[in-house]
Design a protein that fits this description.
By secondary structure, this protein is mainly beta. It is 13% helix and 34% strand. It has helices spanning 2-9, 145-159; strands at residues 18-23, 29-34, 37-42, 49-50, 58-63, 69-74, 81-86, 93-94, 102-107, 113-118, 161-166. Strands 1-2-3-4 form a four-stranded antiparallel sheet, with no helix packed on it. Strands 5-6-7-8 form a four-stranded antiparallel sheet, with no helix packed on it. Strands 9-10-11 form a three-stranded antiparallel sheet. Strand 5 (58-63) and strand 6 form a beta hairpin. The longest helix is centred in the last third of the chain and has 15 residues, at 145-159. The radius of gyration is 21 Å and the shape is globular.
Length: 171
C-alpha cells in the first residue's frame, strides 16, 4: 500500500534536473531552468544566480537580442503565461492573460516584441470554430466528413503559430 501512495504522488514533484538551456546573444551568460526557477550563470562557469523566486513553475527562458531582458513562461496564475524580466532578475511583468498556455519562442530582431506560441481557439461565434453540424454542398448532398474533419484539423493546427507581443518600456 505504501508503494501505491508514493507512486500516486510522485508525479507532482517538481523535476530536479536542468532544462531549457539558452546562451545569451553575446555568449557571455547562460539562462536555464532548474527546480522550476530561472537561473543565470557565466558561460565560463561559476555560481549560478537564481533569477525567479516564486513558488510557481517557470521555464523556457528566451534572451532579448540586446541581452538585457529574458522572457519566460510561468504558471503563477494557473496556466503558463509569458513574463518579461531584467536579465539580472527582479520584478517580472506579465505579458499574456489568455486561458491557454503561452510559451515564449523568440524576440523580434529589433527586440520590441516577444514571439510566443499558443493554441488559441476562435470563439464559438466565429466561422473558424469547429462545428459538429454536417456541411452540405450546393445541391444538398453532405460533404465528405473525412475531408471536413481534415479541414477543421488543418485550421486548428494553423492557429498554433507565433504571435507577437509588444515589449513594455524599460524592461
Amino acid at each position: 500500500m505504501a508503494f501505491a501512495s508514493i507512486a500516486a504522488t510522485s508525479w507532482a514533484v517538481t523535476p530536479l534536473w536542468l532544462r531549457d538551456v539558452k546562451i545569451s546573444p553575446d555568449g557571455s551568460s547562460i539562462a536555464f531552468t532548474y527546480k522550476g526557477d530561472i537561473y543565470k550563470v557565466a558561460a565560463n562557469g561559476g555560481t549560478a544566480q537564481r533569477l525567479t523566486t516564486q513558488p510557481s513553475y517557470e521555464s523556457n527562458p528566451v534572451w532579448s537580442p540586446d541581452g538585457k531582458s529574458i522572457a519566460f513562461a510561468s504558471d503563477r496564475n494557473g496556466n503558463m503565461d509569458v513574463y518579461l524580466m531584467s536579465a539580472n532578475g527582479g520584478k517580472a511583468t506579465r505579458l499574456t492573460t489568455n486561458s491557454t498556455n503561452e510559451i515564449p519562442e523568440s524576440f523580434t530582431p529589433d527586440g520590441k516584441n516577444v514571439l510566443f506560441s499558443a493554441a488559441i481557439q476562435d470563439v464559438a461565434s466565429s466561422a473558424q470554430f469547429p462545428s459538429s453540424r454536417l456541411q452540405r454542398t450546393c445541391d444538398g448532398r453532405p460533404h465528405n466528413t473525412a475531408s471536413q474533419h481534415t479541414r477543421i484539423a488543418d485550421k486548428l493546427l494553423a492557429r498554433r503559430r507565433l504571435l507577437p507581443l509588444q515589449r513594455p518600456e524599460g524592461i
